[in-house]
Write a structure and sequence with these properties.
alpha+beta, binds the ligand N=C(N)N/N=C1\CCCc2cc(NC(=O)c3cc4cccc([N+](=O)[O-])c4[nH]3)ccc21
Length: 322
């Protein structure tokens, strides 16, 4: 708290630490004027990779993304301060914490809940890709839960590794007259532009971990292969004791996302149309919690809550029938 910017400590009262990320930490704070609870993520500027450009450029890019994005399943920044060595980002409170800790405590997430979370992740990444942003670091640590309840909104965070898709020289070349253009420019063009497929792969790994409680690629796998070789060869195991109670549709989504060839991998769009996600009850619940009708009177809110409970009950019953 020592070197907090003055205008920051005038506006917010910082209390306790609520999460410690790899770079910086998350603290609970109160907005003095409204007593509203918020989260404050502190990021040390020296923690930004100076890989592409300077650390400051990377930080500015991330801050620009954080302030531009607007989707119910992407973290929203409410305020922002900086000192010469740190950024202080004020965020909505996500009292459910990280999906990573939820999976750890539950061991395996119940299939209908994993589907609700996965659907929200797909919608969030669909929004990012439609806005020319690739996340590139999707993992359970970067998925936050809005409450301790199973049925809750998830929000993706940490755009440290994300990339903004710019119009490329190749795209401009392909728009011109190809009179003098070599054939390989066209054949190479076929594979370029699939960098967004990395997010689909990562969501496949996140879904696998949520459903099975263990990662598909990990050091002590019986294969004797390094994690890197397991990934590049797409070698993983559905351990029966973990996967027996899980539907074939769920397994199929995982299989079609964990495809080594990015061109053959399910896109986010295709995943959203996979049979496992063709679940109206789940989608109704998702839309309801993602876009709550800000109804003034409590009765409407109660009705919504009742319908959510009913939906979840029918979803859970349905998934047991499967
Ligand atoms: N690294 C980077 N360059 N950008 N990272 C970022 C970008 C800015 C937003 C951001 C937010 C978080 N995390 C939370 O908000 C959060 C974690 C958490 C755990 C328990 C409870 C609550 N809560 O009750 O709120 C929590 N909120 C982690 C990383 C980043």
């Amino acid at each position: 708290q020592s070197n907090l910017p003055k205008e920051f400590s005038e506006k917010y009262l910082i209390t306790k630490k609520i999460g410690a990320g790899v770079c910086g930490e998350v603290k609970l704070a109160f907005e003095r004027a409204t007593c509203k609870k918020v989260a404050v993520k502190t990021i040390n500027k020296k923690d930004f990779p100076a890989s592409l450009g300077t650390a400051t450029q990377n930080a500015e890019r991330e801050i620009q993304i954080l302030q531009k994005i607007d989707h119910p399943c992407l973290i929203k920044t409410e305020d922002f301060f900086q000192t010469d060595d740190s950024y202080y980002i004020v965020l909505e409170l996500m009292e459910g914490g990280e999906l990573f800790d939820r999976v750890k405590s539950k061991n395996q997430i119940e299939e209908s809940i994993a589907k609700l979370y996965f659907y929200q992740m797909l919608k969030a990444v669909e929004y990012l890709h439609n806005n020319g942003i690739i996340h590139r670091d999707l993992k359970p640590e970067n998925v936050l839960l809005s409450s301790q309840d199973d049925v809750c909104v998830i929000k993706i965070t940490d755009f440290n590794q994300s990339k903004i898709l710019e119009e490329s020289a190749l795209m401009r070349t392909l728009c011109g007259t190809p009179t003098y253009l070599a054939p390989e420019v066209f054949t190479d063009a076929v594979t370029v532009g699939y960098s967004r497929a990395v997010d689909a792969w990562s969501l496949g790994v996140v879904l696998f971990v949520c459903l099975a409680g263990y990662p598909p690629f990990h050091p002590n796998a019986q294969t004797g292969l390094s994690v890197r070789d397991q990934i590049t060869q797409g070698i993983y195991t559905f351990i029966p004791s973990k996967w027996d109670g899980i539907s074939d549709d769920a397994k199929d989504v995982v299989k079609r996302l964990l495809v080594v060839d990015p061109n053959a991998r399910l896109t986010i769009e295709e995943a959203l149309h996979h049979p496992w996600l063709m679940d109206e009850a789940m989608k109704e619940t998702a839309e309801c919690i993602m876009y709550p009708k800000d109804s003034g009177d409590a009765t409407a809110a109660d009705a919504t809550a009742d319908s959510v409970d009913a939906t979840v009950a029918s979803t859970t019953k349905r998934s047991r029938e499967n």
